[in-house]
Specification:
By secondary structure, this protein is α/β, with parallel strands linked by helices. It has 2 domains: 5-67, Signal recognition particle alu RNA binding heterodimer, srp9/1 (2-Layer Sandwich), CATH 3.30.720.100; 81-137, 2-Layer Sandwich (Signal recognition particle alu RNA binding heterodimer, srp9/1), CATH 3.30.720. Helices cover 17% and strands 35% of the residues. It has helices at 13-24, 88-99, and strands at residues 5-9, 27-33, 51-58, 61-67, 81-83, 104-110, 117-122, 128-133.
């Protein structure tokens, strides 16, 4: 059994998930819009273009997401999506792309006792991230 990350957005799901797929080398699996649902009460409140469900494959993981209407949306808290870039250069690329126009940067990229580069931030879409490149500090 593997967990699946499911993210909620306030009307920016398609833009955010497309951005994540591009930055992280992922593939968009499907996009199911509100307007695709039957008009029998199955639709969410909001417009036809709202994303009801979509998936992005990142390596062996699937990230799923949808939009929520204003009265159902809440800011994510209590977790972070953690990414471990494979090199210092990849770390810089991923950080620059995901943290551009960030809502907040809790820990800017820096060296720690456990990693060559580490950062925590919340991107412009509201997703909280943690990037960790252990480099030569990886446990033996």
């Amino acid at each position: 059994m593997e967990p699946t990350i499911y993210l909620f957005f306030n009307g920016t799901c398609l833009e955010a998930m497309t951005h994540y797929a591009e930055v992280l080398g992922g593939t968009i699996g499907y996009v199911f819009r509100n307007g695709d649902a039957p008009d029998d009460g199955s639709r969410m409140p909001g417009g036809a273009d709202m994303i009801m469900n979509m998936s992005v494959t990142l390596g062996g993981a699937t990230v799923m997401a949808s939009d929520n209407c204003e009265d159902m949306y809440s800011v994510p808290q209590g977790f972070r999506v953690s990414i471990s870039p494979s090199s210092r250069e990849d770390f810089g690329h991923v950080y620059d792309a995901l943290a551009r126009d960030a809502r907040s940067v809790e820990m800017p990229p820096d060296e720690t006792f456990w990693a060559e580069r580490f950062a925590m931030f919340t991107d412009r879409y509201g997703t909280p991230w943690m990037l960790n490149y252990t480099g030569n500090k990886a446990p033996a």
